[in-house]
Amino acid sequence: MSHALSAAPRPPAWRPGSACNGSCRHASACEATRGGDPALLGVRGVVERVGPFSDGDRLVQPGSPHRGYFSVLSGMAKTTDANRVVAFHLPGELFALEPTRAQVHERSISAIGKTWFCRFPRDAMSDLCGDNDDIARHLAALRRREHRLLKASHDDGDALTRVSGFLFDLRCRRRHIEGESAFVPLPMSREDIGSYLGMSAATVTRMLGRLRAAGILTIRADGIDVSDEASLVPRQDSPGSKPSRSFIS
Amino acid sequence: MSHALSAAPRPPAWRPGSACNGSCRHASACEATRGGDPALLGVRGVVERVGPFSDGDRLVQPGSPHRGYFSVLSGMAKTTDANRVVAFHLPGELFALEPTRAQVHERSISAIGKTWFCRFPRDAMSDLCGDNDDIARHLAALRRREHRLLKASHDDGDALTRVSGFLFDLRCRRRHIEGESAFVPLPMSREDIGSYLGMSAATVTRMLGRLRAAGILTIRADGIDVSDEASLVPRQDSPGSKPSRSFIS
DNA sequence: CGACTCTTTGATCCTGATCAACACCGGTGG
DNA sequence: CCACCGGTGTTGATCAGGATCAAAGAGTCG
């Protein structure tokens, strides 16, 4: 599942002009077109499919010129900042929207397993935004969300809470793609999960084992089957009490 | 040093109309007038001195109407949010600037030890801001700083680093008031410091003890004497490496 | 002086990191 | 076909930081 770290982004098989016709498997979950919203269909005209990338290949790296936005067409991706994983990207999710004025990417984005991307050229998207307020607003909203997610820290609560919260989040996001399914693929390494959640890979394994022992999920080679979703969601016993810090006064 | 938690803000001895003549001991460190900047002298005409508050008395609490800004005239104060200390306020420092549109205070502010405040009525300050761009800009800058400080988390590094960083910060801020002085008063409880730094009071005591054992400071009943300031500042061995999380890929 | 709170200090416990050993798996080359 | 190999996942042992609990000083204020 892993590759030697590629020193530079490997030139993938670009498919310019392969505009989207809305027939891809995740069309209804596509964030770029908001699941096929008629107001946003113009976006389909500018998208290019790019791939395949294999595990570890970098799509962009810090300093590389920002010439487009991306979404996952199939597979998975991660964004890393200073060697720390700050986001995972599932099929349909749009990312690499940097601040509007940004000329270069600020973080690395790399494939997890064999992955195809959709690329939305920045110039074409800018033109679309100028012509279509809906697209502009939609993109701005997604950009704000990305900014929020990249800033969010996952250092709250203990290791078990963080792992189960992470799985719950993944499961919720997958629902948009696959609908109801107990299976949640985890193609990223335990190390990656640990980096994202701020714990060691060994602890990730142990917390998964604890959730398995509790009958909440079963562990497969390529992911997990969630059998008791209700137990994954962080249970907040009494409202307004966060035991992440010591109490005072 | 401590009081039973007062359920409601105790009405202090208000001194309306006691405009500032710049003769107070911390005039040169007064943030409201930027140390007596001629462009900001108008502020002195609207300030009122209020006090004395004794230890634990609340100046404002969440939900109380926002009718003024405050600074410490003498003593010290703390801002608490959900029972956590999020800021300490030293003489001369302006605070309780909430967002411009805020109608009510969002956090508690209470006195630490016997404390006098300067109160800057909101309406009068608004008028001043309308008449004087310097005052408006100055207030906006201070408001941004307050927002940043209240959001900042002190959960980076280990306990010793956080305590010494805290003391270093206090010492730097006191320099504006007292000039060069080895003494740094700590009128707040160890519990308060621990709440602010995200650790237990016992750990605060232990870390202080460790700094004392290292010859960096001596401990007094009401504070500390810093004898080796250079050792207080967080030493970053190699730039760009933060061992606060595990590393990846 | 006495009650009270705060600080200090010791003992213990818990969480999660770290390290090491081992199983597993896919790929590679004989 | 099979031995080998590097990377990954799992699991156990150990360790360190800091929380928690308890008990003993030390002020402090009435």
TrEMBL record, chains A, B:
What residue stretches are annotated with the HTH crp-type domain?
A: 157-230
Q: Where in the cell is it found?
A: Cytoplasm
What are the boundaries of the region Disordered? 230-249
Q: What is this protein's record name?
A: CRP-like protein Clp
Query: SUPFAM superfamilies this protein is in?
Result: cAMP-binding domain-like, Winged helix' DNA-binding domain
Cite the record's note on assembly: Homodimer.
- CDD domains per UniProt: CAP_ED (cd00038), HTH_CRP (cd00092)
Pfam families named among the record's database cross-references: cNMP_binding, HTH_Crp_2
Residue ranges, compositional bias (Polar residues): 238-249
Q: Which keywords fit this entry according to its UniProt record? A: Activator, Allosteric enzyme, c-di-GMP, DNA-binding, Repressor, Transcription, Transcription regulation, Virulence
Q: InterPro entries this protein is in?
A: cNMP-bd_dom, cNMP-bd_dom_sf, HTH_CRP, RmlC-like_jellyroll, Tscrpt_reg_HTH_Crp-type_CS, WH-like_DNA-bd_sf, WH_DNA-bd_sf
PROSITE patterns the record matches? HTH_CRP_1, HTH_CRP_2
